[in-house]
Amino acid sequence: SSSHGVSSAASDVYKCQVEALAGLGADVQAAGADGMTAIMLLAKNGQHATVEALAGLGADVQEAEKYMKRT
After folding, report:
1. Secondary structure (DSSP) of 16-62
2. Cα separation of 66 and 23, whole Å?
3. Residue whose C-alpha is closest to residue 68's, from 39, 29, 27
4. Residue in 34, 70, 30 with CA at minimum distance from that of residue 54
5. 8 Å CB contact between 16 and 47
6. Which tens digit of pLDDT belongs to each residue from 28-46?
7. Stated pTM of the model
8. Using CA atoms, how far apart are residues 40 and 7, in angstroms rounded to an integer?
9. Of 15, 24, 31, 52, which residue is 20 to 30 A from 64 by alpha carbon distance?
10. Is the C-alpha dihedral spanning 24, 35, 51, 58 positive or negative?
11. Cα atoms in the Cβ-side hemisphere of radius 13 Å centred on 22
C-alpha cells in the first residue's frame, strides 16, 4: 500500500538523520527535559530501523526495552 511506502520512507529519513547527527558528535544517550532518550521515543513510536541504528551507534537498547515494559 502507498501508506506503507510513506511510512518506510519516513523511517529511512529518521535513520539517516540520526546517523548524520551522531556523525557530527551528537550524544545518542541525551535525554530531554522529560527524561526520555531518543531510543525510548523511537521505540514507543515503532521506529524499529532507527532504534537499530541508534543501538549500533551506542545508544542503550535496555532503556527502550524498560520503557516499553512500563507502557
Report:
1. HHHHHHHHTT--TT-B-TTS-BHHHHHHHTT-HHHHHHHHHTT--HH
2. 27
3. 39
4. 30
5. no
6. 899 899 988 888 888 888 8
7. 0.73
8. 19
9. 24
10. positive
11. 19
**Measured in whole angstroms, how far is the alpha carbon of residue 24 from the centre of its chain?**
17
Asked if 40 contacts 63 with a C-beta cutoff of 8 angstroms, the reply is yes
Q: Look at residue 71 and give its three-state secondary structure.
A: coil
> In this model, does residue 7 exceed pLDDT 70?
no
Separation of alpha carbons 6 and 16, rounded Å: 15
Cα dist. 34→22, 30, 37 in Å? 21, 11, 9
Mean pLDDT of 11-38: 88
**Contact in structure between 65 and 71 (CB atoms under 8 Å):** no
